[in-house]
Amino acid sequence: MKKILSVNSGSSSIKISLFEMPAEKCLAKVLIDYSNQQKCKATLTLADQEEVFIDHFSGKLHPIALTLQLLIKYRLLKSSQEISGVGHRIVAGGEVFTKSTEITSAMMEQLQDLTELAPLHNPANIAGIREASKLLPNCRQVAVFDTSFHTSLPPENYLYALPLEYYRKYKVRKYGAHGTSHRYVAQQAAKMLQRPVADLKLITLHLGSGASAAAIKNGCSLDTSMGFSPVSGLMMSTRSGDIDPSALAFLLDHGAFQNIDECLEVLNHHSGILGVSEISRDMREVQRQLSTNQQAALAVKMFVKRICDYIGAYWLELGGADAIIFTGGIGENDCLIRDMICRRLECLGISFRPCYNQTHQLPFDFSNTDSSAHLLAIPTNEELMIARDTFALVAKSAVEE
Known about the structure:
The protein is of the alpha/beta class. It has helices at 63-73, 105-113, 122-135, 155-158, 164-170, 179-193, 245-253, 260-269, 272-277, 283-287, 294-318, 328-333, 335-343, 354-357, 382-400; strands at 2-9, 13-21, 25-33, 40-46, 51-57, 83-90, 101-102, 140-145, 201-207, 211-217, 220-224, 323-327, 364-365, 374-377.
């Protein structure tokens, strides 16, 4: 048995899980919110238990250092030397990294060069790698890329209709994101349906603060909604999703933004559910005001409509689907959004059982027996996918040595 640390670093929070592999047993989860540097919040949850530790600490202590302290304090580790490998989620790997890779100094330089593909995420991911390498110098570090699952997209799906020289020279193309999540739930759907993932056509919907859709055929990503960056595609909590670039040029010319950096700030942090509702970025809060606030209702309708647009496109691209999968915070827990989406899909022969849709015993299938596709709500587990890839590379390196 080997212990693997799975690190999912975000711009304002970090999720770290300790796994016993290959049993895939999660020993503990740590969630650290450091959006407030003066009073960061740490939560430790043991396997199959409620939260057992909540504390506030100064942001001067790196979350990975704090996590190791907590794991040792609560006797989940005797010492940090027990850890065999650390896997890090990296949002953007560009065309350079097409699979999970063991981290080297040369690779770190390449990662730094790719920062502009995900300026909100990659710097935090890289900082996590540097800290883990410092704290665990003898431990193998592995990078697991969100974009790698989408490297199977054919050129007609990943290229933009721009002069081709922009792709040749600058590598401007669709890269996608959330690949770790889409890959995981596709594998879980195959288990639920008792069929090989290589035989399935799936539409996966990762609906959370960030949101994306993917068309998966024979276990490989065929198309996905996010593009060159994670701001495009579906409407999200604060990200705009697809928008006519001419509208942005118009707003820039009329002084709505002072420069392109301010424009990107609005697209990433002030748009989406928050921008339309003018209430909150949190879908739960927006839904509380559905009956009394027209903008809340409009935001929800737009969110649902754009998801259905992509489902329709992917249904045609795949030639139908064996299942539509809902995952992410909204996808897993919001029965109203699932209900609104599925009612719009009746023209595809899709039908569902409303009473089953209300259940919270994940995972579950809430489709009718005569539905043209299964409707699955599956909790994602990006940390487990990171641990799986990390363990595989650590085991491979051990054999080669």
